[in-house]
Structures are given as structure tokens and as C-alpha cells.
Description:
Structural class: alpha+beta
Helix content: 10-25%
Distance between the termini: 50 Å
Oligomer: single chain
Amino acid sequence: MTSDEGPPVDATSPLASLTRKPERAADRAMLDALLDEAKVGTLGTVVDGLPWSVPMLFARHRDSILLHGSTGAGALRHVAAGAPVTFTVFTLDGLVVADTLFDHSANYRSAVIRGVLEPSDDAQDALEVLSDKLIPGRVAEVRSTTRKELAATVVLRLPIVDGQWIAKARTGGPGGDSADWTGVVPVRTVYDAPVTYSGETPPASVQALVDPSQTTDGRD
Length: 220
């Protein structure tokens, strides 16, 4: 069995499907959309018998999740050696306001991907994919990564394998009728104006984060 196939999947395992509110299960298209939108996820594993988790920037590239960190990070060396992991992503889309505290809720999208991390075949390419997800167009504006910088960086990929991920979502308002006000308060992430630390004019890629109508190729 190749590493891309992952370990055998037990279809009866509670990790393989939703046991509560199965109607909220989402498909692969929603999983990909969530992974493309979110920028931070939580990597979890067990180290020396104790739970370990850390939030990390990430990018989806085709059928894998790309992660990176320092080669000096002991926990990353642990997961790079083949320890099983989970990677969790969550976005809050709205606060659902009901007429009772019990019925308050939230609209959200979430996913948990399980598997084993693998070293990236091309660390340079993986770093560029990750950078372009966070700040589209920035790779073309900066110098190339040096060999020393690459040597100090570990880039790992988590294959997205059928049977080893669960995605779910809630949408809509509170259930039931009420004479009191109920509704949803939408939640979204926005970029404020950049704060300058050096230089004069923010590069095109940074300007485009604040104003998507701007291009990222150096032209207005």
C-alpha cells in the first residue's frame, strides 16, 4: 500500500462518520472550499503519551494540505517521522440568536482530516504555494529563497484521503417560531489598511488584500 492510500479505514469507526446530526455532513467540494478559504488550522497528535496541538498556517494543494515550520521544532520532527495526526479547520460564519439561551447556536463550517504527514517532494514549490495562498502574488515580488533558508525549514504534506476526513456545516436561522426577535449575525474576516514599518508604498500583493479590485502583477 502506498503512503497516499493511508492506513486501512474502518467504516464502523466513530472517526469515519458523524454520529450526531449526520445531516450536517458536507461533501468534498465544501471541504476544498473551506480549506481554500481558511488560513489557520490546528495540527494535533500525541507526544510521549500526552496530547499535543498547535495552530498552523496552511494551504491546500490539490489533494494535500501543506504545512511548514522550523527543522528545530521537536514536535514537527515527531510527526514527520510518521506519527498519526489530525488537522482541524473551523470558520465561524454567523451567530444564531434565538429566543432562549438553549436554542442559541452558530453557523459554521468545520473539517477534521486524519492521516500521516509526509515530507514534501519539493520544499521550494510548497513554500511558494503556501505563500501565494496567504498573500496572492507575493512570491513574484521577493527574492528567491536561499538554500540555507530551505535547510532550516521543514515542509510537510497531509494527503486528503477518502474515509479519513469529516466535514460539517450549519446554516440558517434558529428553529421554531417566536414572537420575539430572532435572527443571525453574520461573521466575516476583513483586512484593514496595512501598517508600514519600512519603505513607502505597500506592494501590489498587499494592496490587493485590502482592495481585491487591485491586481497582483504590479499594475493598478
